[in-house]
Design brief:
Elements (H helix, E strand, L loop, with lengths): L6 H4 L4 E4 L4 H12 L7 E4 L4 H5 L14 E4 L2 E4 H9 L17 H13 L1 H5 L10 H4 L5
Parallel strand pairs: 1-2
Antiparallel strand pairs: 1-3, 3-4
Protein name: DUF393 domain-containing protein
Pfam families: DCC1-like (PF04134)
InterPro entries: DCC1-like (IPR007263), DCC_oxidoreductase (IPR052927)
């Protein structure tokens, strides 16, 4: 099992920040875990404080959007850009989703915001974050 990297080591790792109380978000994380055979994605709940410790304050959107955030190569991506950049790390056929970057950003983000706004209606809300398996735990931070 991989050792959990400290925050300094995470500076050059791709990290997915998600709403730990959102059933839709947790389901999405389960898909990412299953289809990221390279195991190069790391995960942290937005509620964990890791975002604030890892990313310079000026890069953190305020207020935090109803969105996942994706940290890669020193940059924070939001909304559809985050989702499609995460897709690039997934195995085929999910990696094909990254091709949706050809769709104009305004339309992509409109659809993303519509889903994000209704995510609790779609998949519910939980009182706590999911518990990863022992194998998956090494990829969760915070």
């Amino acid at each position: 099992m991989k050792k959990l990297p400290d925050l300094e080591q995470l500076q050059d790792k791709p990290v997915v920040f998600y709403d730990g109380t959102c059933g839709f978000c947790q389901g999405s994380i389960q898909i990412a875990l299953k289809y990221n055979a390279r195991q190069n994605l790391y995960f942290a709940a937005l509620q964990s404080g890791v975002l604030e410790a890892l990313v310079p304050q000026a890069q953190i959107p305020h207020p935090l959007p109803d969105s996942i955030l994706f940290y890669e190569n020193g940059r924070v991506y939001t909304e559809s850009d985050a989702a499609l950049r995460i897709a690039r790390h997934l195995d085929f056929p999910l990696s094909i989703l990254a091709a949706f970057r050809i769709i104009p950003l305004s339309f992509r983000n409109f659809v993303y915001r519509l889903v994000a706004k209704n995510r609790y209606l779609i998949a519910g809300r939980t009182e706590s974050c999911m518990l990863p398996s022992p194998e998956q735990r090494a990829r969760f931070v915070g």
